[in-house]
Amino acid sequence: MKRGSLNKYYLRKISLKAEEIFFRATMLFSSCIIIFILLLIIYSILQKGLPSLSIDMLTQTPKGGFYFGKEGGILNAIIGSIYLSLGATSLAFIIGLPVALFMNIWLSHKKKLVNSFRFILDLLWGIPSIVYGAFGFTVMIYFGIKASLIGGIVVVSLFILPIMIRAIDEGLKSSSVGLIEASYSLGSTKTETAFKVMMKQCLPCIITAVLLSFGRSIGDAASVLFTTGFTDHIPTSLTQPTATLPLSIFFQLSSPIPEVKSRAYAAALVLTVIILIISLSSRLFTIKYKKNRINF
Amino acid sequence: MKGIILSRKIKNKLNATWMTIWTVFIFFIPLLLTAGLILKSSILLKDHSFFNLVTSSIWKPLSGEFGFLPFIISSLLVTVLALLIAGPVCLLSAIHLTQYANRYILQIMQPVIDILAGLPSVIYGVWGIIIIVPFISEKIAPLFGIQTSGYTIISGALVLSVMIIPFILNILLDIFNAIPKELQEASLSLGASQWYTIKFVLIKKAFPGVVSAMGLGLSRAFGETIAVLMVVGNVASIPKGIFQPGYPLPALIANNYGEMLSIPLYDSALMLAALFLLILVIAFNLISRLLIIRYEKRFA
Known about the structure:
Chain A is mainly alpha-helical. Chain A has helices at 3-52, 55-59, 75-106, 111-126, 129-142, 149-174, 177-185, 190-201, 203-219, 245-253, 258-289.
């Protein structure tokens, strides 16, 4: 090799090495910055939320209006959010579980149809929740229904339905065909295979799907903005408007009164803690039940 | 005995029937959504031309002038800026996590991504008001010699970029993991260094996947409502820079809908905004997801 080309070779090698070192540093930096942002978010919520958190905050409804009243707490929003999310999640579960089972057992031989169905569900998942909210509100107006708990439950359940179905579907998809065939060979019908074998096999996955949907429904503000409204009271029937945690944060944070603002920070802390618990418990479920799966 | 078998069979048939009905019902949701929004927004389109609505920048609903331009431009600015911030971070982090990172970092990152993805948008909004808004008004804007309250396009973009990071990162991780190990091994066995392999094999192969991941991130960012609404300022005029307040489409719907139903044209205009959102988001999703499917087929 000539001297010049050898020099060129080394130069190229060195520059590639320098490039690698530079990019490895930026890569590590990007991963660290993501961790840092999460810590920053949790820190800022804790820092503002902890001083305003008290027993009264968690056990009382706002007194004298949620925007102006200085007394009281956020019990109305906590209870309202739990009612709404429980209702929406169970409604989505009742519709979603059979659909996911149907796709994977009854239609298991029609791969193309199932795949296009998955595609549509993914598209539905991408629709912004504000569109569901605005559309749901228009339909409610058309039928003369006022902002109420039941309206919110229906709209939110439509919004989380694609997530629920796809999450259960992923679990069913990854379980083996051998299990279904073994069940058929013992003479069970499709219904029995679906609800007695597959459902048990995918139980951890179903629990994860339910937790995921619950987290989505408790945190979404745009879809409940018009459909459930806001109130200071704890709802006693399905037709009453209901306060939710995200809206309680959103409305009260814009108030000029510091006491009202502190209610918003407390609500933000409560909501974050709920989401953290959901996220951690779904992780634990997955790890704990993974070993109980039957593999062929 | 025969009776039991028969009843089981009947049960099975019945189950198949109602499940089919429910499955078909879900197919109808998007159609219903689109049809409803078109029906509602047609009232406005009857005496306003679509072209005028999109290019006019005068928003005076009470005197019947509906110019969507400020909202469309704000939406585009916030979304594209957010993607410009989040995109490189996600790409670098995804390469790091799939190629270089050891087990411990992976064990930390997985729950971190999960939690970031699960945090509600309103929490991001609160965080934006506590951290980002003062940061912009006290630290960043004075660097450029600008006086601002901090409720600006750039604050919205920053908050939005953090929100879409877990979303894009998850897709990118799947995409990089889908690339067959053999391709990289072949390159390494020919004497290429790991960085050379990443640069000329991995990124080249993953390119269509990366583009579609960004597309999905863009469509996710486009529809985000509450978090952006809380920090972006909400002034209905065309923003002249990134340190100006903006007013994206979802914020327009969220701020005004519900109160203005007494004016049919206003109601119809907001529905048209929702229709814009729906069509744009679905179009972006459709293109990106088709790209991903084609991409996955290549390695299957």
